[in-house]
Amino acid sequence: MCAIAFSPAADRNKQPILDALTRILDERGTALEIASGTGQHAAWFAAAMPSWTWQPTDAEARSLPAIASRVEQAALPNLRLPLLLDVMASQWPSQGPAFAQEGKEEEEKFDAIYCANMLHIAPWPTCAALMAGAARHLRAGTGVLITYGPYFEDEAQHGPTAPSNLAFDEDLRARNPAWGIRRLDDVVAEARRVGLALRERHAMPANNLLLVFGFS
Q1: Where is average pLDDT lowest: 29-43, 50-64, 90-104, 183-197?
Q2: What is the pLDDT of residue 112?
Q3: Residues 86 and 59: beta-carbon distance below 8 Å
Q4: Are 11 and 92 spatial neighbours (Cβ–Cβ below 8 Å)?
Q5: Cα dihedral sign for 189, 190, 195, 198?
Q6: Sign of dihedral through CA atoms 34, 24, 151, 48?
Q7: Which of 3, 43, 54, 76 has the highest CB neighbour count under 10 A?
Q8: Strands, DSSP E only, in 59-149?
């Protein structure tokens, strides 16, 4: 069994996010998680929501064995083994059969797609790819895309930006010029291009937001 990676940040925010998910999501469904990382969220949510099937994925092949070890340790019937999925790829997942194939008798559609802490540590084009993939793979009409992380908002509407987010953004851009905290208006515009609209905005601890997008 591969060593199981651990993220202190994921451990801190898993319960506040779960509290929000239980208010937002229906009683049962199937969720696709993008950028699962250590798999801590997937295991926590699947354990707390037994009527939801959870499919973890990650773009980094080297992350999959550790996620798989966490899945095996959790031993939950509603938690699937992880798949390789790069949002920039033309097919989701990036290897193996596609979730939805033309002419396939039963295309898998998801009731929710969940993506935490990806947009600010990935190049900006991943935002458009995430939105387009969500529009393809969410259940028509009722499916929701849920994102979590820091965002820059209109200060006239929401008040001054937290100094911690300004410092975090500066650090991200110093590490990689393609990274950085995204402006919420820009993210919403990318969603709108593929027929998704921002339905809910939830303020979360540590100056993060949980956003819910649905079909417009």
Answers
A1: 90-104
A2: 98
A3: yes
A4: no
A5: negative
A6: negative
A7: 54
A8: 83-84, 112-116, 144-149
Q: In the structure encoding, which two tokens stand for residue 106, read together?
A: 């039963």
| Antiparallel, parallel or unpaired: β 182-183 and 151-152 | parallel
Which residue type does 88 have?
M
Q: What DSSP string describes 44-64? A: HHHHH-TTEEEEEEES-GGGH
What six digits make up the tokens of 118? 């990806």
Alpha carbons 162 and 152: distance in angstroms, whole number: 9
Q: What is the pLDDT of residues 71-105, one digit of tens each?
A: 999 999 999 999 999 999 999 999 999 997 555 55
Tokens read off for 192 = 């709108």
Q: At what angle do helices 125-137 and 184-193 cross, to 10 degrees?
A: 40
pTM of the entire predicted model: 0.96
For residue 18, which of 52, 55, 54, 45 has the smallest C-alpha distance? 45
Let me know how long the chain is.
216
